[in-house]
Amino acid sequence: MNNAILPILHSDGGNGSETNSNEPFETHDQSSLDAYSQTVSSVFEKASKAVVHIEVEGNKAPGGSGSGFFISPDGYILTNSHVVSGARSLRVYLADGRSASGEVVGNDPETDLAIVRTDVDEVDHLAFADSERLQPGQIAVAIGSPMGFQQTVTAGIISGLGRSLRARSGRLIDNVIQTDAALNPGNSGGPLLNSRGEVIGVNTAIIYTAQGICLAIASNIARWVVGWLIKEGRVRRSHLGIAGRKVPLVRKLFRLYELEHDTGVLVAGVEPESPAARARIREGDIIVSIEGKATPSVDALHRLLTADLIGEAAQVRLIRGLEMKRLVVFPGETQN
Predict the structure, then answer these.
(1) pTM value?
(2) CATH fold of 238-333
């Protein structure tokens, strides 16, 4: 007996005729595939002109390459910090065949994001979506230059939200998007897009020891960082020294303490000797506000940890077990 796979047959009710049971499913699968293909093709057509390939010549290490995308019509490109850090010179290759020199005008290793400025203008550019509205299972499309193959598109789904990733600076990047869209070296800095062609994340990491686990910096974090990088070239920020993720609050506590939002930031880890550790913030606490301003998400907490709080006394409200506690923390300055 051989190992051939036999077709599954069924009877039509005893009249002796048999049909292949796969036939009705083939039509259904084909129509589903067409709809999926049309979505991916539509996203690529809409967004690909804004995606660029970046060639890097380093100061010390050999040159490398990565991806990026225009975020404005006047030549500003968003990419990964690790793509352009230490570059002596940059060359940007556009989808229409043009190329131009690039200059790093802003760099934030803490979120692995950087801004490159080119002398081209009137270019197609991409808009950011609200990453707080993402859901697991949602379609995710990536465009970039894996292994130097420009204008490559891959697609998959959002596999998970609220992940953490350690940046090359050693600090954790919170609220990272996990996707199974196939990414390879060279995709770094390219956009992760929703079905409308809007940026939901910036592709930044691949888990080499696994299959189908790729990570992207959420668009809400990217949008906030971009404003600082264009304006000042760096992000001056305070920090607590925690790893956190957004969690729902128990409805009873939400009502009891009359909170503005029904979510908060769960403290998933506390760095030793950090401002949070000195303030006795513990793993498992749920931060609901800082200086009287609600922290319903990690993005919201990041936005509140501005330069104004560096070294200043700040009141943190948090839920520990069933109790509401108020602690005073002195945020430190994040060192880029």
Answers:
(1) 0.71
(2) Pdz3 Domain (2.30.42)
